[in-house]
Amino acid sequence: MGTAIWKLTKTAGSADIPSADDAAQVTNEAIEGVQWLTGLLHLPAWVGRVVFIVLVFFVMLWLVKLINKGFRRTMDAMQVNNQDTTLLSFARYVVLALTYFAGGVVIVSSIPGASDSLNALLASGGIVAVVLSFASQDALGNIAGGIMILLFKPFAIGDFVRYIDMGVSGTVEDISLRHTAIRTGENKRLIVPNGKINGGVIENANYADSQVCEFFNVGITYESDMERAIELLREEVLKQPLHLDVRDPATQADQPEVQVEVVELADSAVILRAWLWATDLGSATKLKFALNRAVKKRFDAEGIDFAYPHITITK
Which domain holds residue 71? Predict the structure, then answer.
C-alpha cells in the first residue's frame, strides 16, 4: 500500500496529465491495499473505497499546501522583481490545477462504473473534449486572457494600474488563471476576470519610465496679479521635498525647474497650471495634496483671490 501511495503522490505532483494506465494502476493497487486492511477488520468492501477516496483527498490537500509553501519560499529566496513574481504566481496556479485534476482523476477512477468510462476517455484523448464541453466560453476566455497577460506583460504584480473602463485604480496583487486582483486606494480588493481586463484599456504607471507628471490647476480672479500668482505657485512647488527636477542638464539654464502656464481664460477665472513631477504615482499624489494646503495659505497671505462661481444681480 505504501508503494501505491507514493505513486499517487508522484502522479498528482507531476506536471504531466496522468494516462489511463497510470490512473488505473495507482488506483487499483491503493484500493487493494486499503481493502486488505478493512478485510482484516471484517468491514464491507465499499468501506475500503470510501477510505481510499478520503486518503486521496487528504494527500491532494497536502500536496497543495506543499506547492504553495514551495513557491512562497522560492519567491522570498530569489528576491524576484515584479515580472518574475507574476510568472511564478501564474505557474503556481497551473501546478495547482494539474494537482487537483490528477487527484480528481484518481478519485473518479475509484468509483465503480465511473472508472471504465473515465479510462476510455483518457485513453482516447477524449478528456480534452469533455473539458471543453463543460467549460464555459467565459472561463476559457479568462484563461486565455491570463496567458496573454503573462506573455505580453501589460502589467505585473506590484504595478499601479488604472482600469479606464471601470474608472478604478490600484496595485495589482495577484494574477490567477481566471482573474486579476487589484487593491484599490480605499484598501478594497477588486476582482477582474482576465478576459475582461485583457480586452480593456489599462493605464500602467510602472510601465517604462516610472517618473510621473501630475497637473495642478488653480483658478484665480481676473483682478488678481497673474504674474505674481505664477511666481508664488512655482515657489510653493519648489518647497516640496517630493518635487522632482526632470530638466535635461543641457537645458537647465534656459528652462525653469517648475513649468507654470496660463492654460485657460475661463468665464470667471484665469486657470494656471503647474506641472508636478515625482518619482512615482504615490509620491505625485502626495505632492498634489500637500500643494493644495500650501498654495491656499500662500495665496491668502499674498492677496491672490481664488475664483469661484458667483452670480451678480443688477437692478
Answer: 2-134
